[in-house]
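Below is one protein, fold included:
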Amino acid sequence: MVPAAAAAQDAPPPPAAGTELSPDAHIDISTEAPSDKVEPEGPSDAGPAALAEAPPPRPRKKGLVLESTLGVLGFVGQFRRVAPPASWLHAQLGYEVASWLMLFGEGELAFTDTGQSQDESHTLAFPLFGFGGGARATLHASPRFALFGQGQIDALAADVPHNALSILGFRNAESLAPSFGVRLGVEWYQIDRHLALSAQVGARDASGFAKVAAATDAPIMWDAAIGLRYTF
């Protein structure tokens, strides 16, 4: 033990940092992992491919649905000779009682004027408003796309000063009157299971916008819009 300790004391100290080694110095580099290295837990065949695999998507939700759309509202009957197509805002709140059936209430607002029948000095800009409800049936073509059709019953009117439309022959349009309509569209569900985009077209029979003096007038309105849907 004494000779070994003496040999240890006589051993040269390690070179200081930044000191160059002699050309005949011998360096050993180990290619083995330290014996105290801990192997990761889990299956031994887990590799980059397994880590890169995405988890399965969560199922689509059904429940309370809020949908808003932006588009255009046009007129087919005699009212088209009074007002041009209107910019149209529509919103509906519904509940999906099944994956294919939704009951809803809705409201709408549109803006147009009497520029088709009056000169610029007499043109009157006015809004249309309405509210109602209905039911929607949905057919899922794939997990990301669906087709839908809906029917609704609404009350619709033009918000104008008294007799502003009566002088043009549309007295009934100044007060709420029933309308019956249908709408068809497609939905594109996003990766976020709450969101979907839609495109839709609709038509309705708005009895209050029939011209009083024209017995054969067909007070048909059409609409086209794109929308955003959120499922809570």
